[in-house]
Specification:
22% of the residues lie in helices and 28% in strands. 24% of the residues are buried. Helix 1 packs antiparallel against helix 2. By secondary structure, it is α+β, with helices and mostly antiparallel strands. A hairpin with a 2-residue loop joins strand 2 (24-30) and strand 3. Belongs to the DeSI family.
């Protein structure tokens, strides 16, 4: 099963005190490993691995959502993850156009052919 972890973002510079505005961070869970994406000055990958459900700084775990089953082989899954790590570079992170949710959506599409919920910004 391909799943995503959803985290509420809060903290310095994130909290807008607007009750209708939810900002989420997501990571993709594949075979017991969660893959997340974030930015930085490095020209290396912005993709990291972690235990599922462990919130990044300034985040609170909200929920796990099952996206779909992958029909890919172990080798194909490994290659997809490797390719995503190459494509999602830390210095290419953009809050509006290339963020963790874009990464999660692309990973889910490649792994099981289904997008993340449209309610995830």
């Amino acid at each position: 099963m391909i799943s995503i972890s959803v985290y509420d973002m809060h903290g310095d510079g994130i909290q807008f005190n607007l009750p209708f505005l939810n900002i989420y961070h997501t990571g993709v869970i594949v075979k017991g490993i969660e893959y997340g994406f974030g930015g930085g000055a490095s020209s290396g990958t912005g993709v990291w691995e972690q235990f599922p459900g462990r919130p990044p700084p300034n985040c609170t775990f909200k929920e796990k959502i099952d996206i779909g089953e992958s029909k890919k082989s172990e080798k194909e899954i490994s290659q997809i993850i490797k390719t995503l790590k190459e494509e999602y570079q830390a210095n290419k992170y953009d809050l509006a156009g290339n963020n963790c949710n874009h990464f999660s959506n692309e990973a889910c599409m490649r792994l099981c052919g289904k997008p993340i919920p449209s309610s995830i910004n």
